[in-house]
User: What shape does this take?
Amino acid sequence: MLSRQFVREHPDDVRDALEKKGVDADLDRILAVDEEWRELKARGDDLRHERNEVSSKIGELKQEGDEDAAQEAIERSQELKDELADVEARADELEEELEERLLTLPMVPDDEVPVGETEDENVERRREGFDDRRDLPEAVVPHYDLGEELDILDFERGAKVSGGGFYFAKGAGARLEHALVQFMLDVHREQGYEDVFPPIPVNSKSMEGTGQFPKFVEDAYRIGGENDAEYVDDDLWLLPTAEVPVTNMYRDEILLDDDLPVKHQAYSPNFRREAGEHGTETRGIVRVHQFNKVELVNFVRPEDSEERFHGLLDEAEEVLRRLELPYRILEMCTGDLGFTQAKKYDIEVWAPGDDMDDGPEEGGRWLEVSSVSNFEDFQARRAGIQYRPERHESSEYLHTLNGSGVAVPRVLVAILEYYQNDDGTVDVPEALQPYMNGQEVIEGSQKVGESALGDGEREA
Assistant: This one.
């Protein structure tokens, strides 16, 4: 969240951020509440000072035997006490309103972020791995058709068990998901990340700390309640990303300078309602309600955050480099920048199976597999995460960064399509073969039930 002082001193910057990010918040009301709150705080200080002076005179007047003046002082002290109580009560009301309204203000974009209104104005910074692409079949089969033909992805049974947006990975498909997770964790351990296995349910305070709430409450899976109900601190939600529990590990704590940087990685299943609700990506596993991901979360000193941002990007890219998958780097423009981010780069892998309108000249499409974000002190301020530069100095808010390292289903899509062979089999990337007991080629699973029979066999 933005500090009161920043909002008070830089209203034009905040108003500009609201416009660029397309966020609807009543900044004028926030400024008015802040002004009235400060006036009341000053009035309260004056009343306390006067009451202390009056109280100190009461004893003196009684010692002097001036009972009438002493009684007047007592009555004035009571008046001041009553007025102070009213002032403090009103100040507390404004304080609560101000805190709630500050949560509706987005992070101000970094000055270097390109200005734009939509994702079409994001800036492609570079492409990697396109110059030495492997030879592909003349017609690459999309992953959703190939997955069913090989019987390694089962969408019909996933929908039967859990509804649309869920799937079964089977046989080599399941092994490939497991292999990707273990491979990613090993890569990031080499980069100095400490493993964290977080709880899957998170409370509302945690969702608020990382910025998911109150803005995105309707996108979350609530445990045992309706999404349109007002959330409270002890509500539990299925995590949308491991960013939430891992960042909130240190909520309301003060870290030491010697602790930083803290680099955590966490594998988790993730749950999001919004996936697949926009009329796109409804086939396959590009947009699903449950997906696996390895998340990278960093806690750093403010002066180190820009350098760590680029380091985090490189660490996430390493997964795709070792898998030898072509990808590109996009810098988000202001209009496509998230609510909480000061700066964000997306890593998009190339999947050649579907020839999409927004795909590259080579055909296929881009799939976002990681968003690498610098939140500066936005999340730390919301979650109360500070550090102490020196043991004798006052604490300060640190900076948080995170990025997926990376999202598993979309990488699986890219592997099934990019490593596809003319005979419908799929080569296992060399980096993953040790995680699949040396398996080099995915040839499919044995189908089970009447669905495995031909039409004539079923009729017989």
The chain has two domains: 4-102, 119-442. Residues 132 and 426 are 19 Å apart (CA to CA). The first strand starts at residue 123 and ends at 128.
